[in-house]
Amino acid sequence: MSVQQVDGWKSGKESATVGEINTNVYATQPTRFTLFMRTFLPWQLRRFFSINLKMILLIGREKHLHK
Amino acid sequence: MSRVVVLGAGIAGHTAAPYLRTWLDKTHEVVVVSPQSNYNWVPSNIWLGLGLMTEEQVAFPLAPVYSKAGIRFEQARAVAIHPEGSADSAAPYVVVEKRIPGQSVERIPIPYDYLINATGPKLNFAATEGLGPGKHTVSVCTPDHATEAAKEFLALVERMKQGARCRFVVGTGHGQCTCQGAAFEYVVNLEFELRQHGVRDKAEVIFLTNEYELGDFGMDGAFIRRNGYITPTNIFTESVLAERDIWSITRAHVRKIEKGRVFYETLAGEEHELTFDMAMLLPPFAGVGLQAFDRAGEEITAKLFAPNGFMKVDADYTQKPYEQWKAADWPRTYQCPTYPNIFAAGIAFAPPHPISRPHTSPKGTPIFATAPRTGMPSATIGRVVARSIADKVTGKEGPLHAASMAELGAACVASSGSSLLKGTAASMTVFPIVPDYERYPKYGRDLKYTTGEIGLAGHWIKVILHYMFLYKARLHPGWRAIPE
Ligand SMILES: Cc1cc2nc3c(=O)[nH]c(=O)nc-3n(C[C@H](O)[C@H](O)[C@H](O)COP(=O)(O)OP(=O)(O)OC[C@H]3O[C@@H](n4cnc5c(N)ncnc54)[C@H](O)[C@@H]3O)c2cc1C
Question: A1 CA to chain B: closest CA distance, Å?
Answer without folding.
Answer: 10
